[in-house]
Write a structure and sequence with these properties.
The chain is mainly alpha-helical and about 70 residues long. Helices cover about 85% and strands about 0% of the residues. The chain contains three helices and no strands.
Length: about 70
């Protein structure tokens, strides 16, 4: 369950980076979730770390007044 949530967050972050639609992000999230299951707990940590870093960077940029990239 947690792996699916982290997979969805990673897919959303990757989709935001490309600026494409949500379908691509959903597909990437499903692929990432499958890969994380194969890696076990390490995959969950890596995926969660990626999503957390992207959220941290976005928050830091918004505090500096830099507009988000699209």
């Amino acid at each position: 369950m947690i792996g699916k949530i982290v997979g969805a967050l990673v897919g959303r972050e990757m989709s935001r980076r490309d600026g494409s639609g949500g379908l691509k992000g959903a597909a990437l999230g499903a692929i990432v979730a499958g890969g994380m299951r194969r890696l076990g707990p390490l995959g969950l940590v890596l995926g969660g770390g990626y999503a957390a870093k992207k959220a941290y960077d976005r928050r830091r940029m918004s505090k500096q007044g830099v507009p988000p990239r699209h």
